[in-house]
Amino acid sequence: MSFSFSEENNLKIASLMKRYPQKKALILPLLWMAQKQDGYISEDAMQVISEHSHMPYMHVYSVATFYTMFRLQKPTKRVIEVCRTLSCELRGSQEIKKHLLENYSDSYEIVEVECMGACSGAPMCTLDGKYLENLTPRLLDEVLNAN
Ligand code: FES
Question: 42-61 as b/e, with b when 16 or more CB fall inside 10 Å?
Answer without folding.
Answer: beebbebbbebbebeeeebb
